[in-house]
Write a structure and sequence with these properties.
It is a single chain. By secondary structure, this protein is α+β, with helices and mostly antiparallel strands. The protein is built from two helices and two strands; from the N terminus they run E-H-H-E. A two-stranded antiparallel ribbon has the order 1-2. The longest helix has 11 residues. The radius of gyration is 13 Å and the shape is flat. 0% of the residues are buried. The model has no long low-confidence stretch (mean pLDDT 90).
Amino acid sequence: MNINIKPIPAKDILTVIPLLRKINSKTPDTILEKRLLEMVKLPHYECIGLYLVLI
């Protein structure tokens, strides 16, 4: 198994919506999307992804 941890680029930030939906089940997707798009504009904000490659 190969593990890769890296920042999720701002252009791909909406890919985390399914995960956010699990912990924010009562928040509409439109609000989650709006919040994410605002956060990526902040100079010190990064979202880190853990990518597993199963061989």
